[in-house]
Amino acid sequence: MVDINEVIKIEVIKLPTIYIVGKQLRYSDDALNAGDNRLPAFWDKCIEEDIFTPLESQKEHIYINSHAGVFLDWYLGDGVFTYTVGMLMKKDAAVPDGYVIRELTESEVAMLWVKCKELNETRAVPFESTAEAITQIGRSFNNMKWCIDLYDRSRSTTPDENGYVILDCYIPLD
Of 18, 87, 133, 160, which one has the fewest beta carbons inside 10 Å? Predict the structure, then answer.
């Protein structure tokens, strides 16, 4: 039996400089830690507003053709972080009105597959299970400036025979 948010694959890869283009939400670590998880509702709003169509139309600028959520800015020390929902794009992607673009610098990353029952369980990087998996391979991520949760359509939209889906996580390593 798979535990909730169990890491089933981990691989260290080199990720080039890429860009997240999408819509962003800013709120406090304290609110999230107190159980005020606004990420599922933010994802629902982004899907309802069809923010992905203008990005998907830029086929030559798409780095990975999947929806992504990226955590940023928690390291600034002001108690607030940014979460951007959109797509990972290459340099020179057009930024539609009302969208933001943020650079994710080239990094060696842990690419993890996390198995879970429902996407709403993972509308944020499942930190405890990914941290444990990274530690088990003898690596650390103390200086990361961003992390990505990627919803690969082949793994995150169709549950397996036991009802599980897979979230891809990318976490920069030290």
Answer: 160
Q: Taking 80 as the threshold, does the pLDDT of residue 117 lie above it?
A: no
What tokens were used for 34? 């107190």
What is the spatial distance between Cα 85 and Cα 83, in angstroms, rounded to a whole number?
7
Give pLDDT, residue 32.
80
State the DSSP string of 67-86: EEEEEE-GGGSSSEEEEEEE
| Domain boundaries of the chain, sorted by first residue | 1-17+107-174, 19-104
Q: Which two three-digit tokens encode residue 159?
A: 């549950």
The closest of 111, 127, 117 to 37, measured between CA atoms, is 127
Q: Quick one: which of 76, 22, 11, 7 has its CA closest to 54? A: 22
Q: Tell me the whole-structure pTM to 2 decimals.
A: 0.89
- Integer CA distances (angstroms), 38 to 14, 34, 48, 94, 120, in order: 31, 11, 15, 27, 11
